[in-house]
Fold this protein.
Amino acid sequence: ASEYRALAALPGVEKARIWEPEPEVVYAWQR
């Protein structure tokens, strides 16, 4: 998403990854 890329430009890119993990990670959490 364009919004995600905008966050990547910010210094908080590391936090952005935590906020929006990859779909595979999300499925792992649900299980």
